[in-house]
Design goal:
The chain is α+β, with helices and mostly antiparallel strands. Helix content is about 15%, strand content about 40%. It is built from 5 helices and 8 strands; from the N terminus they run αββαβββαββαβα. Strands 3-4-5-8-7-6 form a 6-stranded antiparallel beta barrel. Strand 1 and strand 2 form a beta hairpin. It is elongated.
Length: about 180
Amino acid sequence: MASATSDTISSGRPVAAVNRAEALSDSGPCPLGLAPRSGHARAMDTDGMLLEQLSRGDCLRLMASVPVGRMVYTRRALPAVDLVNFVMDDGDVVIRTDSGGKLAAATHNAVVAFEADSIDILGHAGWSVTIVGYAKPVTGAAEARRLQETGLAPWAPGRRDHFIRITPTLVDGYRLRSRQETAP
């Protein structure tokens, strides 16, 4: 992104001026001039399966329903993926890691992707959501204390005293399910 003065959304307002609640809503303007989705796009295949493109709100709600996702970032000029536990906080993904570790260093104010999913292997169904946004360290002591109360406990051994917040700019998700699951 160049600067808030040259980057505008479809309403003509600078990206920096987009109201956070508006950016997270299903119907408000989306950052970077992307049109918000209205409803759900559906496509049926010949096996009776339904592929549904999810709204931003549905994507964020589904992400909040699982405890583990994949952080995609750049390490030493190459793509890297780490499996991490996380929580959703005010529409943002928050992870907890070691402040001196490779993940904290590589994601400091960087553009990253984060993916979460849930899969029913026997039913050949499930959903997948990917977000892209800036990863920023949580630096305020009060916010760090509040995040400690969210229940985000590190699964990996060792001290994990550093929080990283990823604010979604792009959100994309799909759900695959059988036609019978969608019947009233």
